[in-house]
Amino acid sequence: xxxxxxxxxxxxxxxxxxxxxxxxxxxxxxxxxxxxxxxxxxxxxxxxxxxxxxxxxxxxxxxxxxxxxxxxxxxxxxxxxxxxxxxxxxxxxxxxxxxxxxxxxxxxxxxxxxxxxxxxxxxxxxxxxxxxxxxxxxxxxxxxxxxxxxxxxxxxxxxxxxxxxxxxxxxxxxxxxxxxxxxxxxxxxxxxxxxxxxxxxxxxxxxxxxxxxxxxxxxxxxxxxxxxxxxxxxxxxxxxxxxxxxxxxxxxxxxxxxxxxxxxxxxxxxxxxxxxxxxxxxxxxxxxxxxxxxxxxxxxxxxxxxxxxxxxxxxxxxxxxxxxxxxxxxxxxxxxxxxxxxxxxxxxxxxxxxxxxxxxxxxxxxxxxxxxxxxxxxxxxxxxxxxxxxxxx
Length: 393
Ligand SMILES: Cc1ncc(COP(=O)(O)O)c(C=O)c1O
Hints:
Elements: E1 8-9, H1 20-26, H2 28-31, H3 42-61, E2 69-72, H4 75-89, E3 96-100, H5 105-116, E4 120-124, H6 134-140, E5 145-149, H7 163-173, E6 176-180, E7 199-203, E8 214-218, H8 244-282, E9 286-288, E10 299-304, H9 309-318, E11 321-322, H10 338-342, H11 347-351, E12 353-357, H12 364-383
Parallel strand pairs: 1-11, 3-4, 3-5, 5-6, 6-7
Antiparallel strand pairs: 2-8, 7-8, 9-10, 10-12
The chain binds pyridoxal-5'-phosphate.
């Protein structure tokens, strides 16, 4: 953690602190280079230059062209734009949309809303590791299918999907393919051409950039409509005054990731594997959620027999550790995770889940501390559980 943060933060999938190197780069854009990028005078042109330079940086990070990057305010917005924008621009061609059963809430809710507008939405199942079978995508595509949207890497369990194969199928069938790459962006290599995607969402605050900047990659020639109407910024696809400081920070985050991703990934995998091995060996009745190998470098997700995830989070917080039961957005709802349920976990198993996500400032000593305190925490919670009698340890 940056020096002033004393707690142990193991919730990097929820949001990340801004890297001090990025903070330094963006500060002048708040009060010195603060112009509106649409203004014709020099303040505006300075902001416009920074905006277009950022666009180039982010495009080259994923092997896209600069004019294929549309800046938005959040990945929630990018995902809404992808689904609704494609749906409404292509409804003469068809009304059938395919998603998976483990998408982020912003995809699930957008799809639900589209259903209410008369679109047909099919949700694909996953196996016990949270993996989608590309052949299921192939089987479900019909003449009316206009869009397939599959998350690249799960925000909850970290499982990485076979995006390239799914994209190939969509291309052969002439169907647009969108992937929500919020969790994978900056952690594993992304190449929109190799992955056969037409649309891709990413968010700055998940990769050490500031909140308030995100993008939607839109392949040239894609038929898409805006969901915000106004001044016509971002090629008419996202009207709003441009958040230049946040976008400059997003681009700076991509520059750092490009340089450090490989080495940092290997460092984090080592810590994550130590964490997984430690939890599974020290705590009876603990299970790893998600794919054992094909997962994000920084994600570990468990379920513990006979305990509630929320109780673990509260106990860990008292011990100075920040963790999560699932996605940040769903942690306000006391429903079991739809992702874990889709993988076949029972209600009570899904309720006993703990997500630990590592990041740039995670130290080995922090993993050691967690491994020291977690077994006792689970033991104490099991002792006070009203269901104590129904399981033995
Ligand atoms: C996979 C995924 N998609 C979308 C989002 C939404 O991103 P944002 O916070 O930028 O709206 C998140 C955030 O948790 C996420 O993890």
